[in-house]
Amino acid sequence: MRSNPLAYLGAELDALREQGLYRRLRILDGEQKSRASVDHRSVVNLSSNNYLGLTTHPLLRQRALEALNTLGVGTGSVRTIAGTMEIHMELERRLAQFKQTEAAVVFQSGFTANAGTVSSILGRDDAIVSDELNHASIIDGARLSRATIKVFPHRDVTAARQVLEALPREQRTLLITDGVFSMDGDLGPLPELCDLADEFGCIMMVDDAHASGVFGRNGRGTVDHFGMHGRVDVQVGTLSKAIGALGGYVAGSKSLIEFLCHRARPFLFSTSHPPSVAATCIAALDVLEGEPQLIERLWENARFFKAGLQALGFDTGISESPITPVIVGDGALAMTLSDRLFAEGVFAQGIGFPTVPKGRARVRTIVTATHTRDELQFALDCFRKTGTELGILGAG
Ligand SMILES: Cc1ncc(COP(=O)(O)O)c(C=O)c1O
Predict the structure, then answer these.
(1) Where in the sequence numbering do the catalytic residues fall?
(2) Per-residue pLDDT, 20
């Protein structure tokens, strides 16, 4: 009998179970909505990135169906062979217009947009200066590029400057930050980093995955929010969160985009989006431009919920966005709080080490434009009950 060469994986999973870090997938029984059925239980959903509720928007559904009926379910090829349809080009033109850049290119996901871009525009002689909490796709792209990677402490512009001062002035250098950090909901210090990029001659890049559809005019992102147009060379956005569908994109100069179409490996070696996805994303841009009240509603809900959690006495960290962490410290306590909330009817994910530093475990909440006040008040009541029972909130 052949012994199982993958037996070590089982042992690693056992270790995760012993440490209380093994997570079973929660399963949605229906649509991704503010009140959803998860594991056969109706819950107020505070775990999705569906910021504007576009996953179920009637216009997006209708355009997806039209594209399915007229263009089929798939493209059958990568973009560079036979997988580019006119609808892909239309989406890219719309994105460039929306972001006020010369051009844009769409990738299969935000992950491949980051990883494919960083790994192709930098090489082994170059340097990457990156915030320590930047997304995993940036870290992977940086590793694939074989460039020298220098990490600076979270949002520490002075430390970033020291790193840049220590690098040879002639070395090509990428300075990169997330626009919104996904675990704390805080913003990258974009204006200060743009100043550094100008001073040191760096390529400036921002990953606006959680800012797309949320920050800036009509959801144009943090570059628009901070008035940094023309000062960020590479803007990444995602079509998978507020836009409600799937994909990522890079917006920038014409030569950047043409280069990515020739060198970014996910663009060259992985099949393009089904036309229904491109149609959905174009419809989402129509909604961002035509229904700005959705973004206003998102922010009203975010302010209401954040203030409610703070009034109860929870530590909500330094969030400036609709992502609000409830920081409890201990990893097991965060998972227990999440489980107890779920039992009460609120779905909010527990997050511990290594996703966040040891001692900073939390339950992460994300509100959307489509949550009703009743749903949010219900969630606050459940947070009060469970937080008190677990001794996270003081007596009374
Ligand atoms: C900051 C950040 N960048 C990139 C991504 C990847 O985006 P996508 O889910 O579209 O692959 C995510 C989310 O998963 C993210 O939070």
Answers:
(1) 182, 210, 241
(2) 74
Nearest to 232 by CA among 162, 148, 175, 305: 175
Tell whether ligand 1 has an atom less than 6 A from the beta carbon of residue 178.
yes
Residue tagged 């998102």 (tokens): 298
346-347, strands of its sheet edge to edge: 35-38, 41-45, 346-347
**Interval 240-254 mean pLDDT:** 98
Evaluated on CA atoms 81, 87, 91, 96, the torsion sign reads positive
* Integer Cα distance of 380 and 41 in angstroms: 19
Q: Point out the ligand 1 atom lying closest to the alpha carbon of residue 134.
A: 1
Contact 95, 251 (CB under 8 A): yes
pLDDT category of residue 142 using cuts at 50, 70 and 90: very high
Residue to probe by mutation, ligand 1, list 138, 182, 222, 246, most atoms within 8 Å of CB: 182
d(CA 141, CA 265): 11
Assess whether the C-beta atom of 210 lies below 6 angstroms from ligand 1.
yes
Give kind and range of the element (H or E) at residue 103.
Answer: strand 103-107
Q: Please, are residues 329 and 359 in contact by the beta-carbon 8 Å criterion? A: yes
SS3 125: coil
Task: Report yes or no: 190 and 226 within 8 Å, Cβ to Cβ.
Answer: yes
Write the pLDDT tens digit of every residue in 185-242: 999 999 999 999 999 999 999 999 999 999 999 999 999 999 999 999 999 999 999 9
Give the pLDDT confidence of 311-343 residue by residue, as tens digits.
999 999 999 999 999 999 998 899 999 999 999
